[in-house]
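User: Please predict structures.

Assistant: First:
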Amino acid sequence: MNLERIIEMLLSNLEVNIARIGTDFENRIKLILSHFSGIKVNTNKIEFLASDGKDVEFDFIGTFDNHLLLWEFKAMTVP
């Protein structure tokens, strides 16, 4: 199972324009995934400092069954 490809195909089927980068895209993905009963989406912004002192923020935080989902969105497709 290629999770990256499955998500890419889901976005394509839902006609999500992945060229729209930024907060709008992230919010749209959160909204879409919140409609799936098995996925719990965190809608609160969570920021923290890494051990090197740099700010850290994930674009998507959620759970699926007993899995924690931490995602950083990038504009790319899988061949």
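Second:
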Amino acid sequence: MTTVALAESKPYHHGDLRRALLLAAEAVLEREGPSALSLRAVAREAGVSPAAPYHHFKDKNELLNAVAMEGFSQLHDAMAMAIKDEPAEERRLAIGVAYVEFAQANPALYRVMYDCARNGEALPEDTHENDAMGGYKLVKDTINEASGGQLSELDLELTCIASWCAVHGLAEMCKFHKFNPLKEMMGGERAFLEGVLDHFGVLSRTKKA
């Protein structure tokens, strides 16, 4: 969202300054990268006074952590939307594709999300329960459903971790141009993602009996 759009919506005057600042921070991130993010830059983007951000964030790190939490929430929503109307046998694949597409559409935000998540104090301990980890529980529930509830708690947890590693790795690998000819041959980016994920046992389509 641009500065003009933010100014026109006037979120600050509706008492939604924090939300306006987070939207502004995302705009700065995607346009200029993490190094350009500062409380002053966010205030300028949101069209508020330089002092306004300090009502919600004491420093840049606190702002980054809030942006990361918002990013994980958006990731959760993207995955939830992706599986909403999918038949049960397609949900694991759909959730994996949605994850990678979110990372591709929001590269700077995605980077900040994981930079902050690596800091043990950046996110609360109950992140999974609050969906702040981008729908970890959603992924877990989807895998459990696909298995018919047959996995032990340990196997379910390990399968969820393996799934997360798979999509995170694929999101990174998709940046390499060397795969472009293969994507073209397969019919485009989405077909490529589905093809790769379908070869991961943990995220493949559930085989019908």
